[in-house]
Design brief:
Helices cover 46% and strands 13% of the residues. The protein is built from 20 helices and 16 strands. The two termini are 21 Å apart. Bound molecules: adenosine-5'-triphosphate (ATP) and magnesium ion (MG). The site of magnesium ion has 3 residues, from helix 7.
Length: 488
Amino acid sequence: MAETPQRLLLIDPNEADARSLLALAREAGLVAESVAEGQAGFERAKVEAFNAIILDAAAADGGDPKGLGLVAQLHARHPRLPVIVVSGDGSSTTAIDAIKRGAFDFLAKPVGKQDFQKVLAAALAASRRMTKPVSIGRASGGEDTLIGESRAMMEVYKDLGRISPMPVTVVLRGETGTGKELVARALYQHGHRAHMPFIAVNCAAIPESLLESELFGHEKGAFTGADTMRIGRFEQAHNATLFLDEIGDLDLSLQSKLLRVLQEKQIQRVGGRAEIPVDVRIIAATHRNLESMIADGSFREDLFYRLNVASIRIPPLRERRSDIPLLVEHFASLVASEFGLESVALAHDVTEFLRQQPWPGNVRQLQNVIRKAVLKARSYGIRVSDLRGILEETRQPVRIETPHGLHELITDALRRSIDGESPGAHALLMARVEGDLLAEAIALSGGNQAKAARWLGLSRLTLREKLRHYRLHPGERTKSTRTAPPDS
Ligand SMILES: Nc1ncnc2c1ncn2[C@@H]1O[C@H](COP(=O)(O)OP(=O)(O)OP(=O)(O)O)[C@@H](O)[C@H]1O
Ligand SMILES: [Mg+2]
């Protein structure tokens, strides 16, 4: 990518560790430097704009008798700078203390390459969401631009201008790929809490069983596997902004809990009693039709009214076809510069052809089509004949039973983790695959759970529990085809 490289500061008194972490960071394409001592790092961060800091807890005393004072100092001075704490003392108290003081994440030493790169990528994505301004209207070169000069987009910009300074909960409505995330970032950046963190949770990407603890945290021993206490996103977002993406995917029990939090402005960690006050500005988004969900009982009406204090509707691409030429130009030049290509020629009929398409995947689909077309174009430019094939590809639903579909699911799960939308590709992918596997087995067995359990090699009890978990109703022919966004 032809962008300025991201900068990383490493604060680590152990020379050998510092060397290996620096090497990993540079391998990931960062410009990285290190200092051995906490205070020196603090001074360095005052004069240089870093995208992330890695701080060894051993260097982190900062004059605080409990240790980790430096985390709090860094967080107070640079609230939007992700600080990843690493420690040779992998004890849970260090991790918890670090997060309580505002650390972005915690890693135990020795730090594995994969963990490191995953956490680093999430930190950089978070930093970008907070600090890279979303520009509005016409291409200014960068990717973080909301393109569109149509009347429909003007309405969105007016709403943004009107709502962003107000300290209210906002719901962003719009089909998949319409730009809800960009709008959320713009709202945050123009809002009264722009200097504080923007914390994003994708409710659809996190398995249901983990989501409550992701949002509200948990106490040690709250459930099997809760070996340590955990601070949830609401606590992390205290005095800041929380982006609850895919809010329509919350199950009813979490909806009630969220409603309570909005009403009482305090949370309880899972397994905990204490009421912890939180002051959080919520921006929620969904591509689902909440009104029809309310009508069929799958979304709480009272929660809807609590959330929907202000709302912005982001129009589908087919309602603003006049923006298509601008978007095409924008994406083509982004892809060209990313790959160091000459600007790409478009055959005379390409723009009109693209304007006519239905775009069920909206801007994201258009972006993908252009990307593929640019890479295919070579010297002759983009032609309608190539676009036809590419459109066909991007419109295909992902079918899990084909290796192609499985590969797509895997890359999508990894992408979501790399983008920081999900806490782990493994859990996400397993949850998706498991749900489909169970559904298919139940369907093939004609709803006979004993048979399905035998084929699956599970006990009937386990199967029943899992079916409940995935909300699969035995006996029903459940869809075995997962439709992902057309381009994912
Ligand atoms: N108006 C726009 N101008 C430029 N790029 C856009 C615009 N709208 C969306 N995009 C790009 O399209 C992609 C999808 O946008 P985004 O992730 O915001 O969609 P979304 O509405 O959140 O979709 P979903 O409901 O599937 O999560 C992103 O890469 C984004 O940068
Ligand atoms: Mg989104």
